Amino acid sequence: MKKYENDFVYGRERLRILLVATAVGCAASLLTPQYSLVQVALMCLTVVLFVTCLALIFKYCRCPNCGKVIFLGVMALKSCPRCHRNLVTGKKMKTGKSK
Ligand SMILES: [Zn+2]
């Protein structure tokens, strides 16, 4: 079993899979004939996946230090926009440009 550093990392990995599944479901529903049963089923699936994504974001994708929900850029962000701590290690990120 794969080990995760914390809930945030776990949630982000799950979210990545779900987002891919949502995109695939969305694309597949667009490729199927309009108003067919298959399209309705695929659209329902896409909506369910999308809602699951949102639930996952609110459950796991929050800063481990200050609890802020990371909504935008959850895949790219390395530090919390509010408290500027690393989302994985919890260490304070260096601020300022001088080394
Ligand atoms: Zn934070």
Could you walk me through the main structural features you see in this protein, from its secondary elements to its overall organization?
This protein has 99 residues and is mostly helical. The protein has one domain (1-99). The protein is 49% helix and 0% strand. It has helices at residues 7-31, 37-60. Helix 1 packs antiparallel against helix 2. Residues 63, 65-66, 68, 80, 82-83, 85 line the site of zinc ion.
Quick take:
The protein has 99 residues and is an all-alpha fold.
List keywords for this structure.
mainly alpha; binds zinc ion
Produce the secondary structure layout.
Blueprint: H1 7-31, H2 37-60
Helix pairs in contact: 1-2
The chain binds zinc ion.
Q: State mean pLDDT (0 to 100 scale).
A: 91
Distance between the termini: 39 Å
Question: Given the helix and strand composition, which structural class is it?
Answer: mainly alpha
Number of strands: 0
Provide the helix percentage.
Answer: 40-55%
Shape, please? elongated
Estimate the strand proportion: under 5%
* Count of individual helical segments: 2
- Give the H and E element order: HH
> What are the distinct ligands in this entry?
zinc ion
Q: List segments where confidence is low: pLDDT < 50 over at least 5 consecutive residues.
A: none
- Total separate domains: 1
| Overall radius of gyration | 17 Å
**Largest sheet data:** none
